[in-house]
Design a protein that fits this description.
- This protein folds into two domains: 25-226, no CATH class; 229-374, Four Helix Bundle (Hemerythrin (Met), subunit A) (Up-down Bundle), CATH 1.20.120.
- Helix content is 71%, strand content 2%.
- The chain contains ten helices and two strands, in the order H-H-H-H-H-E-H-H-H-H-E-H.
- The chain has helices at residues 28-53, 78-136, 143-165, 170-195, 200-224, 237-263, 279-307, 312-334, 339-361, 370-373; strands spanning 231-233, 364-366.
- Strands 1-2 form a two-stranded antiparallel ribbon.
- Helix 2 (78-136) crosses helix 3 (143-165), helix 2 (78-136) packs across helix 4 (170-195) and helix 6 packs antiparallel against helix 9.
- It is flat, with a radius of gyration of 23 Å.
- The model is unreliable at 1-24 and 370-374 (pLDDT under 50).
């Protein structure tokens, strides 16, 4: 029988768990799928970047079909259709893994009852989406986007109900549901991106949302190996405050990076209009919070090692990611934004955000009690 996160019963047959319990055990399958979820969420940023950087954004002119008559690309669409359809296929892989993770987590944390509740919601969501499609199609409405929106709403309702009714490892259940809801939402936003002709603001939102999902899966990996129970701050207050200010600098850097890319030459298709900002000016503005971010991370890393603080090793990882990111950013600017370097820059931003997420989660540790101290 595989290991699960369910605590052993005490002498009276009741389940118990305290803050002094060892880290929650998870099945090997869940551990593998959690890593695959993180990896595929990162990879899809690369494939999405490839779509944009090769001008394949409208390689499939329709959604969810690739053409009005075909689900898959036709020979006439050439390599652009293959690249765009490949990214859509990757979305399906990410979704399947997210579903598998949530089912395993629910079974471990809530047993058969929690699992069957999710299955009933899934069946109801599919039925509701089919009804929405059947009702809207005869009126020449965007039937599939409407059906997708209905499915997304049902998924959100299922997540809210499941999280509220879960007592064991609610942190893992919450993170798994956020990832699954995010994947469904991303598929919907991706479709809107195609239907709006690659609107740069929607494309930028699509990327930022994907980056957040990378952070969610990274957080799941950390919490998967952490003990359940109350947690307390493991670093000085000033260090925690500075870390959160660093997060703000990271967010601003990424925001201006998205705007800069949305103003640059890589629109996803030769006929797509940009949003009108001066890309040269934005590139400089993007670099300012980037250098501030690098300085803050370096200061935190030095302080963490001097004071022997818990997040020190992950701060080194974050510092290395930021240093490489700065180097690639300067390189791509000097070389005229070659697509390969821009794509690497996009993936590195996601990895830096994931490393920052891990650092934040190491600002606290399990509450120490007399029994654990002994």
């Amino acid at each position: 029988m595989p290991e699960t996160m369910i605590p052993a019963p005490d002498a009276r047959g009741r389940e118990h768990r305290s803050a002094t319990d060892s880290p929650a055990r998870v099945s090997r399958l869940l551990r593998i799928l959690a890593w695959l979820s993180f990896l595929t969420e990162t990879i899809i940023i690369g494939t999405g970047g490839a779509v944009r950087l090769t001008g394949s954004g409208l390689g499939c002119s329709e959604w969810p079909l690739c053409t009005p008559e075909s689900l898959v690309p036709t020979p006439e669409q050439g390599i652009h259709g293959v690249i765009e359809f490949g990214n859509r296929t990757m979305t399906g892989v990410v979704g399947i893994i997210a579903v598998a993770v949530i089912l395993l987590v629910l079974q471990a944390a809530g047993g058969r009852r929690a699992l069957m509740l999710a299955v009933r919601y899934a069946a109801g969501g599919i039925v509701a989406a089919v009804i929405a499609y059947a009702v809207s199609a005869p009126f020449a409405l965007p039937a599939f986007p409407i059906a997708s929106a209905v499915l997304l709403l049902v998924c959100i309702a299922a997540a809210a109900h499941s999280i509220r009714s879960t007592r064991d490892r609610r942190d893992l259940v919450t993170l798994a549901w956020i990832t699954l809801v995010g994947v469904v939402a991303q598929a919907f936003v991706g479709g809107i991106t195609v239907l709006t002709g690659l609107n740069p603001f929607i494309v930028g939102f699509h990327y930022a949302s994907s980056l957040l999902l990378v952070c969610m899966t990274a957080a799941f990996l950390v919490r998967m190996n952490a003990a359940p129970g109350p947690r307390e701050r493991a670093v000085p207050r000033w260090f925690a405050i500075t870390t959160h200010i660093t997060g703000l600098a990271l967010a601003v850097t990424i925001l201006f990076g998205v705007l800069t890319t949305g103003s640059g030459p890589h629109s996803g298709d030769a006929d797509v209009l940009r949003h009108g900002f001066d890309a040269t000016v934005l590139a400089h503005v993007h670099s300012w919070p980037g250098y501030i971010l690098a300085g803050l991370v370096l200061a935190l890393a030095v302080a963490a090692w001097v004071l022997r603080l818990e997040p020190r090793r992950w701060l080194l990882v974050l510092a290395a990611a930021i240093a490489v990111q700065v180097g690639v950013g300067v390189w791509q600017a000097r070389e005229g934004l070659p697509p390969l370097l821009v794509g690497i820059h996009m993936v590195l931003a996601a990895l830096a955000a994931a490393a920052y997420t891990v650092v934040v989660l190491h600002l606290k540790h399990m509450v120490r009690t007399e029994s654990s101290a002994g």
